[in-house]
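I would like you to help me understand the sequence and structure tokens below and explain how sequence relates to structure.
___
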Amino acid sequence: MALVTLLTGVVAFIWLLSEENSLLSVLSLGCMVSALSLLHAHYAYALWTRLGCTLRAALIGGAISSGTIGAAACLMFLKTVIHAHIVPDYSIEQQLGMLMRLPTWTAAGILLGTAFSLVRCR
């Protein structure tokens, strides 16, 4: 787990320094950061053992999907601030548009987590 965390940090650092500004890369990196942080939280096992399988899967799905959007928006902002070009890597409209999709992505993650639990836990 520590090695994966270190590698994710290195990838994020290299991405921040590069001149690449596609939405796919920032969403992929945001998903990596979100899933990794959730894996770290999963090791706080005491709370998870009290919850049912379906509720745990729904919470994990919602957290990963909303964390993906949150991390991607933060990464987009950081990259724009670090590079400070005349024309930013990601416009304000793109950043706000990403945040406007947060409720939809959260609901989709909750539904996917619930669907996964219905297949896996039954």
Remarks:
- Residues 2-120 form one domain.
- The first helix runs from residue 2 to 17.
- The radius of gyration is 16 Å.
